[in-house]
Design brief:
Layout: E1 2-7, H1 12-23, E2 28-33, H2 35-44, H3 50-62, E3 65-70, H4 76-80, H5 83-86, E4 90-92, H6 95-101, E5 106-111, H7 117-128, E6 134-139, H8 143-148, H9 152-164, E7 171-174, E8 192-193, H10 196-207
Parallel strand pairs: 1-2, 1-3, 3-4, 5-6, 5-7, 7-8
Length: 208
């Protein structure tokens, strides 16, 4: 069985390979990296790339993928909606994280790309259902410029500092998979949730 991963940055490839080696040895991963999908989704909205995503995923299923995991929070909902058309499970990496966060009463969402906020908030509302959850958002200023420049340490340090500055919440959500390693740099006592590990675990379960 092969799990296809749809990324919008090549930086995600080693992250998920390492998680696979640690948590799911033997699972075959196929990485699809399309940076322009995020660029166009940020400019025109995620729906603008929905047709292209469906075509990409249909192609990888034809080539043998038994499930797909989208690691980009901005286009995750669009990718997830393609499942019926392509005939295999399509998961968004942040859904298990959102489900865990939605069990709390107060949630702070950190993001480095503004386009991630709307789909993340919609996902949290979906997972919360009828439960009232107070959700606040924080944009990490300057972080995405570091990421695009290849300054991973600078990026993660800014995310960690933003997390450490948060007060009065039950849980902090790192909206993008690229932010995950900032967890190891935080000193806050508030739980900080990231998406790669639980997202890959959910996808591995359906791929097998």
């Amino acid at each position: 069985m092969t799990l296809a991963l749809l990324h919008t940055s090549p930086a995600h490839v080693p992250v998920f390979d390492a998680l696979r080696d640690t948590d799911h040895p033997g699972l075959a991963l196929r990485h699809l990296v399309y940076e322009d999908l995020l660029t166009r989704a940020r400019e025109s909205g995620p729906e603008a790339v929905s047709g292209e995503i469906r075509a990409l995923l249909a192609g990888v299923v034809t080539e043998g993928a038994s499930a797909v995991l989208c690691t980009c929070s901005t286009i995750g909902g669009v990718a997830e909606s393609a499942a019926a058309a392509i005939g295999v499970p399509v998961l968004r990496v942040d859904r298990p994280m959102a489900a865990a966060a939605a069990e709390r009463e107060r949630v702070v969402v950190l993001a480095t790309v503004a386009g991630t906020l709307e789909p993340t908030l919609a996902l949290l509302a979906e997972e919360a259902g009828d439960r009232p959850v107070d959700v606040r958002t924080v944009m990490v200023d300057g972080a995405w410029a570091c990421f695009e420049a290849g300054d991973r340490d600078g990026y993660l340090d800014l995310v960690a500092a933003a997390a450490d500055a948060v007060t009065d919440t039950d849980v902090i959500v790192l909206a993008q998979a690229s932010m995950a390693d900032a967890v190891t740099r935080t000193v806050t006592r508030i739980p900080v949730l990231s998406s790669p590990r639980p997202g890959l675990a959910a996808a591995a379960a359906v791929a097998r």
